[in-house]
Write a structure and sequence with these properties.
three-stranded antiparallel β-sheet, 7 helices
Amino acid sequence: MDATELLLHPVRLRVVHALSGGRVLTTSQLCERMPEVPKVTMYRHVALLAEGGFLEVAQEQRVRGTIERYYRLRQNRPAIDVDAAAAMSLDDHRRGFAAAMAVLIAEFNAYLDHPGADPAADAVGYRQGTLWLSPDELAEMNHKLLAVLGPLLANQPEPGRAPYLLSRIFFPAKQILPGEERT
């Protein structure tokens, strides 16, 4: 299974998010974070991610006669890079978008269900707006976003930091028909 196929599934995407930032978790801990996912399903998806090169075993510990594995994201894991995204079919993009939205909904519900959730204090935001951009302005905006966000993506968990899920959703607000100018 290639990187695109592996990541275009909401449970596997949530596992990747859960392990981001250098976190190390067992499959049981992942089940606790996602109680709506049956344990057998979680174990199957973790195994697929490990077989696909996304996860590696950080350590093993014997617990009541079984071996418990602690997983982390591999440093050089496969990714859906620009070339892979360009090779995706329209149906792949539909599935990817649906998986990303399912992850957002599930993670947001998990946040709201957590005792002490306080959207105002946590600066929760989910606003949308329309930007009118030329191709050059779009390229400049992407460059600036990468310059700001790139260094923050390297942050590791430490006291005083909380994980925030950031999703950039970006597409033309209307369908561009063949022969129609982008205006």
